[in-house]
Amino acid sequence: MSARLSDYDYDLPADLIAQRPLPRRDESRMMVLWRATQTIEHRQFTELETLLKLGDLVVLNDTRVLPARKFSDDGAIEFLFTECMGSGRWKCLVKPGRKMRPGATARMDNTILRVEEISPGGERIVSLNEDIDLYAGGSMPLPPYIARESDAEDERRYQTVFAATPGALAAPTAGLHFTHEILNKISHAFVTLHVGTGTFLPVRSQNISAHHMHPEQFSISSGAAEKIDNAKRTLAVGTTTVRVLESARRQNGKLLPQAGSTDLFIYPPYRFQHVDLLFTNFHLPGSTLLMLVCAFAGRDFVLAAYQKAIRERYRFYSYGDCMLIL
Question: Which of 185, 274, 306, 317 is most buried, with most CB under 10 Å away?
Answer without folding.
Answer: 306
